[in-house]
Write a structure and sequence with these properties.
NAD; 2 domains; 14% strand; Rossmann fold; 288 residues; 6PGDH_NADP-bd; NADP binding; three-stranded mixed beta sheet; six-stranded parallel beta sheet; alpha/beta; NAD binding; single chain; N-(1-d-carboxylethyl)-l-norvaline Dehydrogenase, domain 2
Length: 288
């Protein structure tokens, strides 16, 4: 059984590591804030001081951090992944990042005798906790085949989308869809409340019809409880929408609805709610 390395144990990463430990894998972990690994260390994960150390002591190295600049740092920075003994190993970046960075990582990995996949996920904190994430993979099929059993430990659906960067492009398509469902859900609640309706009844009714969707089922009830704990940070969703719009511009396509969703999340972040979950979009309308 391969030894796993995992860099980035935030909301999603910590749950993924727990699944890997329960499946019997030995897992080396690194996080910028060590205290966020305390629970994992109690459950058997092994702390390493740098991404380089994780790489040296692991066969398959996962990373899941916040922004493309963070990915650059942990792979190319001092004591980064690529400064370690990476020859013969597989690196898998699960961060929602740019397709171009995924391609760059693959090129560097190949130069150093390693292999690489980009594998962003969808499903939020609940998907990570339940081991039911959807994982979108870009890279070579022969590399994917080697690690598919590991990906299945924490995923209910895993698909190879194509060459390096394809996982990231698929995640952008996913986020474009989520932008629509989140703004639609928010405006549904604003409208229903203004009309004097019982919001719980509205959600129960609408959720049983053609408007049913994951965001409505999972995030609308949190809003009614005024629970804005991040299953996915608003600031990270804003980052994703900006990447999607940048990629769309490169392909000379217009995404006006996605652009408006981006503007709304930018306004939310500008008001200081960047560390709330994406469901906090309702705060642009409701004083809660």
């Amino acid at each position: 059984m391969e030894t796993i390395g995992f860099i980035g144990t935030g909301v999603m990463g910590a749950s993924i590591v727990k699944h890997l430990l329960k499946a019997g894998y030995s897992v080396n972990v690194y996080n910028r804030t060590k205290s966020k690994t305390d629970e994992l260390l109690k459950e058997g994960a092994i702390w390493q001081d740098t991404p380089k150390d994780v790489t040296n002591k692991s066969d398959v190295i996962f990373s899941m951090v916040g922004y493309p600049k963070d990915v650059e740092e942990i792979y190319y920075g001092e004591n980064g992944v690529f400064s370690g003994k990476v020859d013969g190993k597989i690196v898998i970046d699960m961060t929602t990042s740019t397709p171009s960075l995924a391609k760059k990582i693959e090129e560097t990995a190949l130069e150093l005798g390693a292999e690489s996949l980009d594998a962003p996920v969808s499903g939020g904190d609940l998907g990570a906790k339940n081991g039911t994430l959807t994982t979108m993979v870009g890279g070579k099929k022969e590399v994917y085949d080697k690690v598919e059993p590991i990906l299945n430990v924490f995923s209910s659906k895993v698909n190879l989308q194509g060459k390096a960067g394809s996982g990231q492009h698929t995640k952008m398509a996913n986020q474009i869809m989520i932008a629509g469902t989140m703004t639609g859900m928010t405006e549904l609640l604003v409208y229903a409340k203004s009309a004097g309706l019982d919001l719980a009844k509205v959600l129960d009714t609408v959720g049983g019809g053609s408007a049913a969707n994951w965001s409505l089922a999972n995030y609308a009830p949190r809003i009614l409880k005024e629970d804005f704990t991040p299953g996915f940070f608003a600031k990270h969703f804003l980052k994703d929408l900006n990447i999607a719009l940048e990629e769309a511009e490169k392909m000379s396509i217009e995404l006006p609805a996605t652009k408006e969703a981006r503007n709304l999340y930018q306004a939310l972040v500008d008001q200081g709610f960047e560390n709330d979950g994406t469901q906090a979009l309702i705060k642009l309308w409701w004083d809660i």
